[in-house]
Amino acid sequence: MWIVANQLKGVLKFPGLGIEVLPEKNVDLDTLGREKAEASDQLKLAIDQGYLKTVRKTVQLDETEVNRMIEERIHSIKASLVNELSGLYRTNPELPKE
Description:
By secondary structure, the chain is α+β, with helices and mostly antiparallel strands. It has helices at residues 34-39, 41-48, 63-91, and strands at residues 2-6, 12-14, 19-21, 26-28, 52-57.
């Protein structure tokens, strides 16, 4: 999410991006695509001149990185569960063993 706010009393038009930002309103630039927005000279100028102000900009992770992080977390949870269960069987001999 990359939210920017129009700091002006007028409409900001970005014809190269096909967007308009109404006075004192916010827009999520990620709806255009982060790479496209970051490469825009029009947006850079508007931010540098103080016409637009970044309200919030979160880190974008690619799908491969997100999937890797999820897999690592699943593996960690699985290892914890196996560890807990094996400890349960060792400390409580009344539980049936399969």
